[in-house]
Design a protein that fits this description.
The protein is an alpha/beta fold. It folds into 2 domains: 199 residues, 3-Layer(aba) Sandwich (Rossmann fold); 95 residues, Magnesium chelatase subunit I, C-Terminal domain (Helicase, Ruva Protein, domain 3, Orthogonal Bundle), CATH 1.10.8. 47% of the residues lie in helices and 15% in strands. It contains 16 helices and 11 strands. A hairpin with a 4-residue loop joins strand 3 and strand 4.
Length: 332
Amino acid sequence: MQALPSPDELDELVAVTARLRAGVESVVTGRPELVRVALAVLLAEGHLLLEDVPGVGKTTLAKAIGRSIDAPVGRIQFTPDLLPSDLTGVNIFRAQTHEFEFRPGPVFAHVVIGDEINRASPKTQSALLECMQEAQATVDGRTYPLPRPFLVVATQNPVEMEGTYPLPEAQRDRFMARLTVGYPSVESEIAMLDAQETTDPLARLRPATNPQQVARLIDVARRLHAAPGVKRYVVDLVAASREEPGLRLGASPRAAIQLLRAAKALAASAGRDHVLPDDVQELAVPVLAHRLLPSTEARLSGRSTQDVVADLVARTPVPSLDPPARVRRLLG
């Protein structure tokens, strides 16, 4: 069993997260909850799906996260004619050497921004499956590792909009969380107009960390303590989704793994060395809702998968936990 993070390691993680949050919030105003969950996905080594109508800041948030890390950023503008090789790369024949040379695609970056991912065909969308799950890409039978950390931040428009394809279930399951950006408040929109009246806040954004530090902090977050009761709580939520009559597809075991990892990252960013049920509850909708398929009756009644997950959280008993080891030492 790995040792819990030391106080110094947690302090470093909290400080880096605070710098990242301040930088991103200087660009994406009025959405602190959105930024907090997005950074938890980064520290949990997951992938993030941003969904909403055009013009609400999805791509801006993705760019802000990319620029906050001093690392190569790959940008992919998904279009109907995009090919899988445009993502992963191609082998080019060099006449001078009479050999093939691999030309890496934009996925070979620490942060990959996939803009309007659901405007490409399902075949092209599926080219990301291996990359997102195994951090590698196979081209012409040869496998190439991707850099660590590897984060895909994809944006998509609602499927009702013209020219969009629904994401395959297997690909949705590989995104750790889906967030809806939403419209800002009146005050936030006025602040946005003031900030962008003469300059672009993205141009002023400076990196707050580097890939090596992010990779180290990912390992720190994974070493947080999750009590057996918390793990059982995660499994109970996931299992309840598989028995919910309003769903025809519940959450997968991968969903349980990613929910726990995201909860650990959220707890670590708060300076704790243990996970609380509150962390799981806060992340249940972003992590689980996009993986579920509603039944026909639920769709006709206007009940969304977010509503279903919220009901599951309200119905599932919350475990009572013993104080973590560090708290017991302080008390005893």
